[in-house]
Amino acid sequence: MYLRRFYVPMKILSSQRSIWWIDDLNQPETSMFKIFDLLNGSRLTAPYVESCLANGVEAIHVTLNNFQGINPVPDLRHSLNQLANYRAHLRTLGGLVRMVESADDFERARADKKLAVVLGYQNVPGVERDLNLLRLFHDAGVRVIQIAHNIRNLYGDGCAEPADAGLSSLGRELVVTLNELGIVIDLSHVGDRSGVEATKLSKHPVAVTHANAFTVCPNMRNKSDALLDALKDNGGVIGITYLPPLVRMPTEGAPSAKDVIAHITHCAQRIGAEHVGIGSDFITDQPAERYQEFMKKPEVYGTWPWRFPVDNLQQQQELLESLLAQELTRAQVEGIAQGNFMRLFKTVLS
After folding, report:
1. Could you give the CA distance from residue 85 to residue 228 in angstroms, rounded to a whole number?
2. Model confidence pLDDT, tens digit, residues 200-217
3. Which residues contact 97 (CB under 8 A, 6 or more apart)?
4. Which residues pair with 276 in a beta bridge?
5. Residues 6 or more apart in contact with residue 346 via CB below 8 angstroms
6. C-alpha angle with apex 283: 281 to 289, nearest 5 degrees?
7. Where are the alpha helices (DSSP H) in 93-224?
C-alpha cells in the first residue's frame, strides 16, 4: 500500500513546536512516471536537478552548443569550448548528476539517486570533413549528434531548406561513422528527405529528440507521416515536445495540454506507442535574450514570450497521467515517459 506522509505542528507544554508524522492510509495508491527527457534546455542548477529527481525525471539530454548561448552552427573551437565548460559545470554538481557514457550509467545513476545527463550537439560539432575527429568527442562523453540544424550544412539539408535535397555523400559517411562510434543520431531539425535517408542508412535506431507531428501542426520543424513511418521501420523514437509553436501554429492561438496529447496520440496510432517518447524542450530559468535569433522567424518559432502548454515538471506528470484516458495502457505510457528512449540508447551505446 502506498503511504502518504504529512506533518502537523503540535503545541507542547513549552509552547515550542514539534513535528508529528501521520500516515494517511486512506489515500489511493499512486506512483510517479519515471522520465527520460530527450531534450531539456533548462539551466542545470542544483535546485533544478533536485526538482527533476523529485518529479520523476531520471535522465535528460542536454545541448552543448546552447550551454552559454545559442549557437546553432558551432565551429570546432566553439564546440570544444562548450564541451569543456559543460563538463566543468557538471563537476560542480557531482553529488547530484552522472554523465552517461555507457548504457550501464543509467542504472548507476538511478542506484545512486543521481540525474543521468546525456551530452549532445544539435549540429555536427565543427569537424567539417574530418569525421575522424568525432572520435575525440565520443571519448569526451558526447552521445548524441544531430545531422543538421534547420539550414543546409556539409552533411545534408535542414528542415528550413526549400530544396529538401537530402543527405550529401559526406552526410552518408557521417551516418556510418556515428553508427560505428555508438553515438545516437538526432533528426529533430533535419529536412524530411535527409531524415528518411538517414533512417534507411543507419544500422542503429535513430532519434527525433524534440519535434512533433506535421499532420497535427504544419510547422516546418515537425515531422511528416512519411518520416514517422521511416522512423518506425528503423526502430527509432520521436520525442514529443512542448515548445509552443511546434504544438500549435502561432496563428492559431496558444496551445494547451490537449494539443500535446493530440501529437502523442497521432504518433502512437500511426507508428505505435513504442516509438514515442518525451523531449520537453523546457527552458526553465533561461534568459529571454538567448532566443532572440529564433524570434526573427516568427513563422517557425512564433513570438516571445513562449507559453508552454506543459509548463513545469509537475504538469509533465499530470500530462502523462492523462494519457491513461487515451486508450493507452500504463505500460505504454511508461514506455513513452522513459522506456522507449531508454531502449534506443541502450541499443546504440552498447
Report:
1. 35
2. 999 999 999 999 999 999
3. 44, 49, 90, 109, 114, 115, 116, 117
4. 238
5. 103, 106
6. 125
7. 104-111, 134-139, 169-181, 192-201
How many Å apart are CA 65 and CA 125, to the nearest integer?
8
When pLDDT is averaged across residues 33-57 and rounded to a whole number, the result is 98
User: Which string of b and e fits 261-293 if b means at least 16 CB within 10 Å?
Assistant: bbbbbbbbebbebbbbbbbbbbbbeeeeeebee
Give the whole-angstrom CA distance, residue 190 versus residue 178: 16
Q: Which three cell numbers stand for residue 139?
A: 571519448
For residue 93, how far is the Cα from the chain centroid? Answer: 20
Whole-angstrom distance, CA of residue 6 vs CA of residue 211: 39
Instruction: Count other Cβ atoms within 10 Å, centred on residue 76.
Output: 13
The one-character DSSP state at 167 is B
What would the pLDDT profile of 72-109 be if each residue is shown by its tens digit? Answer: 899 999 999 999 999 999 999 989 999 999 999 999 99
Q: Give pLDDT tens digits for 12-36.
A: 233 333 333 333 334 344 589 999 9
- Is the per-residue pLDDT at 240 higher than 60? yes
Q: How many CB atoms are closer than 10 A to CB 107?
A: 13
Place of cell 512516471: 33
Q: Which pLDDT belongs to residue 19? A: 31
Q: How far is CA 62 from CA 59, 117, 160, in A?
A: 10, 7, 23
Amino acid at 315: Q
CATH no. for 33-349:
3.20.20.140
Predicted confidence (pLDDT) at residue 3 exceeds the cutoff of 70: no
pLDDT at 154: 98
Cβ neighbourhood burial of 209 (10 Å; 0-12, 13-18, 19+): buried
Q: Which residues are CB-contacts of 227 (< 8 A; sequence separation ≥ 6)?
A: 187, 192, 195, 196, 199, 208
pLDDT at 297: 83
Long-range interactions of 164-167: CB distance < 8 A, separation 24+: 164/191, 164/192, 164/193, 164/194, 165/191, 165/193, 165/194, 166/191, 166/193, 166/194, 166/196, 166/197, 167/193, 167/194, 167/197, 167/198, 167/201
pTM, full prediction:
0.90
Mean pLDDT of the chain: 91
